[in-house]
Write a structure and sequence with these properties.
Order of helices and strands: EHEEHEHHHHH
Radius of gyration: 20 Å
Strand content: 5-15%
Strand order of the largest sheet: 1-4-2-3
CATH architecture of the largest domain: 3-Layer(aba) Sandwich
Number of helices: 7
CATH class of the largest domain: Alpha Beta
CATH superfamily of the largest domain: P-loop containing nucleotide triphosphate hydrolases
Length: 169
């Protein structure tokens, strides 16, 4: 998402427990911003230990405590929601600030998401049977035959990724 060729938001990233939240809050107060969490743990309700969820601040903080622990959440869903908040925050004349340590969320927001086909369950079952009967090495050899570039990147023991690469191919 770009406005006038520029990203319309600031990003603060870093490893766990490096003070990203406190920096983001200070910055938000200084420049009239609102924060969007890019943390894959802070999204879940009741998950407070080890997540350093922001509490007691007068700065709006989005994408925190909104999912039940059993619910799944993807990078694609993060991007969709983050972009909605970015637009709403900007429309209020505030500066969106993305803060968090989940690199996949931030990378996907900045670079976009690759749209891949859904899983082909019939093909997936056949490939799993092939692993059972012929082994992992055989499956990797198939991938090497059809998609050498992917085979080069995927370890021969990583059957999940090999199967997905064959599905997509």
């Amino acid at each position: 998402m770009k406005i006038n060729g520029r990203c319309p938001y600031l990003v603060i990233v870093g490893a766990t427990a490096t003070g990203k939240t406190s920096v983001a809050i200070k910055l938000a107060k200084k420049i009239s911003g609102e924060i969007i969490s890019a943390d894959s743990r802070q999204i879940y309700k009741y998950l407070t230990v080890g997540t350093a969820k922001p509490q007691g601040y007068d700065i709006p903080y989005h994408l925190v405590d909104f999912l039940e622990p059993k619910e799944k959440f993807s990078a694609g869903e993060f991007v969709r929601l983050a972009e909605e908040f970015i637009e709403k925050i900007a429309a209020r004349g505030k500066q969106p600030i993305i803060v968090g340590g989940t690199g996949l969320y931030i990378k996907t927001l900045i670079d976009g998401i690759v749209r891949l086909p859904s899983a082909d369950e019939k093909l997936r079952q056949k490939l799993h049977k092939l692993v059972e009967t012929r082994g992992k090495k055989h499956l990797h050899m198939l991938l090497k035959k059809f998609d050498p570039a992917s085979a080069e990147k995927i370890h021969p023991n990583n059957t999940v990724r090999i199967i997905r690469a064959l599905e997509v191919y």
